[in-house]
TrEMBL record:
Residues 387-501 form the Peptidase U32 collagenase domain. Keywords: Hydrolase, Protease. This is Collagenase-like protease. It comes from Sulfuritalea hydrogenivorans sk43H. Pfam families: DUF3656 (PF12392), Peptidase_U32 (PF01136). One of its GO terms (molecular function) is peptidase activity.
């Protein structure tokens, strides 16, 4: 089992990705020009190439998202993009559409996107066997379920099992990823195509089967944000090796803060656990203390990792309310005073719940002790109103500056040669490089000062990515060398080491599928390709093109329905399947309260009504609905 632990951070663009690596990421994931599951976070090939070149210096990785479902007329463009990503230096493609596996792809690793909805050992093993090197598990899994999947990948496997990846921080989709169709049904914008309209963040009224109101105007499908800070050791023991931070649309302060937070936690674990190693090179130092609560979040939950819990929803608001910091104590004409647990500053952002329980915000233009002058004095602020700080101006300003350094430890050894001197560098990965300096052996007039000067000039690595951990002088006597000569020798050696590190940073090969002649691994079905765990697929399989249809047919599936995005399902279907259960949230769970039945309930938003049906055996809630009339249709049917 791999001992490498990978911190995987989001990159909205190349600059964000570079900062993520500087703040401790072992790998970053980024979208290309098209077909990433965040339509508004695309990047050009040159940007990916620039990011990959920076990542290689630290032996970090760049994963590119190619994780939407594709129409037939998009397959060739996707294939061309895959080659361009590979040629730009990307290390892996994150994939949802199985049709891509039928194309002429470059020899690049494939990672199964969270959109592939991996919840069972059987599906995880199938994806491993058809060639995926890393698989992103569903966010809803418990530790026990993760451990079973890990065991299923390892037992009977010939070779290295696929790496298990798991989201540890950020926004939570309430539905199983890849299993939400509300956006397409209501707006024509498909979540599986990177265009989710986020109906889950809207307010709803919940009615029981008799029409009685259970909850009024609440954000009932909005989850708190994922935070697995306390569960990293347990996740490692369950088999997780890649720890993923959500947020390709988040701002830079979020990326810096959250990456530094998890880097700090993982390093604490690594320092106490010699059997594990980090997946890239270098150690980070920060000019700030990471504080996850300071950047955008909807509250924190560890979701289902430690089994089902109450209070996982952000029902009051899908916005960032911030930290509770105090309450209003006095109100003036254009100011108010507040009793707070910490001082407030000019530029701080505050929020509070108004009389309608809506979250509203204001900006502190000037803070004069406890007296605050907002940008606009609200009418409904009252004495006793609780105040939250959702922007800490001092914290944000610290993150706007250079806020981290990442350095690779070096051992420097200066030795004499018959015609001069040589400097040998060995980095923390054991990579070595040398440079020679022809120079006369000149006896020093002051031995102590000569040796101190050599050490000082050799250790001047401030403009590089390296830090001197040990300097050895293998000299027969303290020779005199001018500072300019030592600096030139050091620069030449650093350049040689950078080249050696680049040469040593090889991309891992594509995993060969079981049953392929190249693999040397016997097929599971008498020479045939691995068999998919089911022989019939509904619209939930998201098959939108002929290549995906051919893939599943080749792997034993006999009935393959078209993707929901083809609009073939005209009646009511499950538009969302989720482990979140509103019966449980409101103490109406038949498993918890004797005598209750799992009768349907209704979500109401204006004129929109959605039926809730409850599968108590699986502990799942289905949100039922159908295609809305008049919405724009942008998907063509799959070819048969």
């Amino acid at each position: 089992m791999s001992s490498l632990l990978e911190l995987l951070a989001p990159a909205k663009n190349a600059d964000f990705g570079i900062e993520a690596i500087t703040h401790g990421a072992d790998a970053v994931y980024i979208g290309g020009p098209a077909f990433g599951a965040r339509a508004n976070a695309g990047n050009g090939i040159a940007d990916i190439e620039r990011l990959a070149a920076h990542a290689r210096r630290f032996h970090a990785k760049v994963f590119v998202t190619l994780n939407t479902i594709l129409r037939d007329d998009e397959l060739e463009e996707a294939r061309r993009l895959a080659w361009q990503f590979y040629e730009a230096g990307a290390d892996a493609l994150i994939v949802q559409d199985m049709g891509l596996l039928e194309l002429d792809l470059p020899p690049i690793q494939l990672h199964a996107s969270t959109q592939t909805d991996i919840r069972t050992p059987e599906k995880a093993r199938f994806l491993q066997d058809v060639g995926f090197s890393q698989i992103v598990l569903a966010r809803e899994l418990t530790l026990q379920e993760i451990a079973k999947i890990d065991e299923g990948l390892r037992v009977g496997a010939d070779g290295t099992p696929a790496t298990l990846e798991f989201f540890v921080h950020g926004a939570l989709c309430v539905a199983y990823s890849g299993q939400c169709y509300i956006s397409h049904a209501h707006t024509g914008r498909s979540a599986n195509r990177g265009e989710c309209s986020q109906a889950c963040r809207l307010p709803y009224t919940l009615e029981d089967e008799a029409g009685r109101i259970v909850a009024h105007d609440k954000h009932l499908l909005s989850m708190k944000d994922n935070d697995q800070s306390a569960n990293l050791r347990a996740l490692i023991e369950a088999g997780i090796r890649s720890f993923k931070i959500e947020g390709r649309l988040k701002d830079l302060s979020y990326v810096k803060n959250i990456t530094a937070h998890y880097r700090t936690l993982l390093d604490e674990f690594l320092n106490a656990s010699p059997g594990y190693r980090r997946a890239s090179s270098g150690r980070c130092s920060y000019t700030f203390t990471p504080r996850p609560e300071k950047t955008f979040n909807r509250g924190a939950t560890d979701y289902f990792v430690n089994e089902r819990k109450p209070d996982i929803g952000a029902f009051d608001t899908p916005k960032f309310s911030g930290e509770l910091i105090g309450e209003v104590s006095r109100i003036g004409p254009d100011w108010f005073e507040a009793e707070t647990s910490a001082p407030l500053h000019n530029g701080d952002g505050l929020s509070y719940y108004d009389s309608h329980r809506e979250l509203v915000g204001l900006r502190v233009n000037r803070a004069d002790g406890a007296r605050l002058f907002p940008n606009e004095m609200p009418d409904d602020l009252a004495v006793g109103t609780e105040l939250y700080r959702n922007r800490d101006q001092e914290f944000e300003r610290a993150l706007e500056k250079k806020s981290a350094e990442r350095r690779i430890g070096l051992h420097l050894q200066l030795s004499e040669t018959p015609d001069g001197f040589a400097l040998t560098l060995t980095d923390e990965d054991g990579i070595t490089a040398s440079a020679a300096l022809p120079h006369a052996h000149e006896v020093s007039k002051n031995a102590d000062r000569a040796l101190a000067g050599l050490r000082e000039n050799l250790g001047k690595l401030g403009s590089t990515i390296f830090a001197a951990k040990e300097i050895s002088l293998d000299l027969s006597q303290p020779w005199f060398l001018p500072a300019s000569a030592v600096n030139g020798l050091r620069r030449d050696a650093i350049a040689a080491l950078e080249a050696a590190r680049a040469a040593a940073c090889e991309r891992l090969p594509r995993r060969i599928a079981v049953g392929c002649p190249q693999s040397g691994i016997p097929a599971t079905q008498g020479g045939a390709a691995p068999t998919y765990p089911e022989n019939e697929l509904s619209y939930l399989a998201n098959v939108l093109n002929s290549a995906a249809r051919a893939f599943y047919a080749k792997h034993g599936v006999s009935v393959i329905a078209e993707a929901y995005e083809t609009d073939s399902e005209k009646g009511e279907v499950s538009l969302m399947i989720t482990r979140h259960c509103l019966r449980y949230s409101y103490n109406l769970c038949p498993k918890e309260v004797k005598g209750l039945r799992p009768d349907p309930m209704t979500l109401v938003n204006g004129k929109e009504k959605l039926t809730l049906r409850f599968d108590c055996k699986k502990c799942e809630m289905h949100v039922i609905g159908k295609l809305k009339k008049g919405r724009q249709i942008s998907i063509t049917p799959v070819a048969h």
